[in-house]
Write a structure and sequence with these properties.
It is a single chain. By secondary structure, the protein is α+β, with helices and mostly antiparallel strands. The protein has helices at residues 11-18, 34-47, 97-112, 127-135, 164-170; strands at residues 2-5, 55-62, 65-76, 81-88, 117-122, 139-150, 153-163.
């Protein structure tokens, strides 16, 4: 699996999962219409040209096929804080794609951008996502209550994080994310 900058042409592949109820079950967005997905992809592509850049969006490819995406958001440059998010097509759930996306995002955040702390959240009912965050070496910090209003009511968020020294201690220095 490789991560590469998202491009406008990727919108159809992104829509193949952003339009599915099971993918956005725990999210405030979706299922997306084609127009919503195109607008989202356009926004993520445009973010690459902002200065200073705060949002880094990538697609995950397996043999050229887009199977997921991930984003790294710089939440505070001064405090060196970031957040990662990801989505994976259900046809590759359970195959390590989410973990590989997360590893690539952490490498960019800590290795390329010099961040100190990166966090991620997930709905407490999203056990698959919580497993991915654990595999990434992130520590569960606790639960924030009623953080998002979604289709079935208010959603809590489990907070996970990893610090740069924790990441460096478990990451081989020879590993570099693929572009």
């Amino acid at each position: 699996m490789t991560l590469s900058r998202i491009e406008l042409a990727d919108w159809r592949a992104v829509h193949s999962w952003a339009s599915l109820a099971e993918v956005c079950r725990f999210q405030t967005w979706g299922p997306n219409t084609e127009e919503q997905t195109r607008a989202f992809v356009m926004t993520t592509v445009e973010a690459w040209s902002h200065t200073p850049q705060q949002r880094f969006a990538y697609v995950a490819r397996i043999e050229g096929d887009v199977v997921g995406m991930g984003e790294l958001h710089v939440r505070s440059r001064g405090q060196r804080q970031g957040e990662i998010t990801y989505a994976v097509h259900p046809r590759v759930w359970g195959q390590g794609v989410g973990t590989a996306i997360g590893e690539g995002l952490l490498a960019r955040g800590f290795g390329d951008l010099g961040l100190h702390r990166i966090h991620a959240t997930c709905d407490p009912r999203n056990l698959g996502s919580a497993r991915v965050l654990g595999k990434l070496g992130m520590t569960r910090e606790g639960r924030h209550r009623h953080t998002a209003l979604i289709r079935d009511g208010w959603r809590d968020s489990e907070m996970f994080s990893i610090l740069e020294d924790e990441w460096r201690a478990t990451t081989p220095s020879t590993r570099s994310p693929q572009e």
